[in-house]
Amino acid sequence: MAWIILILSGAFEAVWATILGRPANLQRPALLAAFLGSLFISMYGLGWAMRFIPTGTAYVVWVAVGASLTVVYAMLTGVEPVTWIRVLFLLMIISGVIGLKLAS
Question: Can you say whether the dihedral through the CA atoms of 59, 3, 16, 85 is positive or negative?
Fold first, then answer.
């Protein structure tokens, strides 16, 4: 259960990071609420998961999930280019997270 919460928390990190990426978004009440809500859920879930998963492992997984989803979203929406090298490095991040899960 802790791993599921951790991964979901990483997904919420991607939400708040994406909203934060455009400062004008924080001027809109609905997006500001989404930012604050996703920030709270992300941090709370990370803290909860750290009670069961070693801190270093939990933090790396949380960052990797959030960063990967943020980059994938940016590529899908055309904000960032899709290149084979970017996809390769994203796959390396994901394989590292899987390796950490298998090692713990």
Answer: positive
For the stretch 43-67, pLDDT in tens is: 999 999 999 999 999 999 999 999 9
Domain extent, residue 76, equals 2-103
In the structure encoding, which two tokens stand for residue 65, read together?
A: 């999930």
Decide: pTM greater than 0.85: yes
Written as one letter, the residue type at 61 is: V
Burial of 6 (0-12, 13-18, 19+ CB in 10 A): buried
How confident is the model over 8-17, as a mean pLDDT?
97
Q: How many domains does the chain have?
A: 1
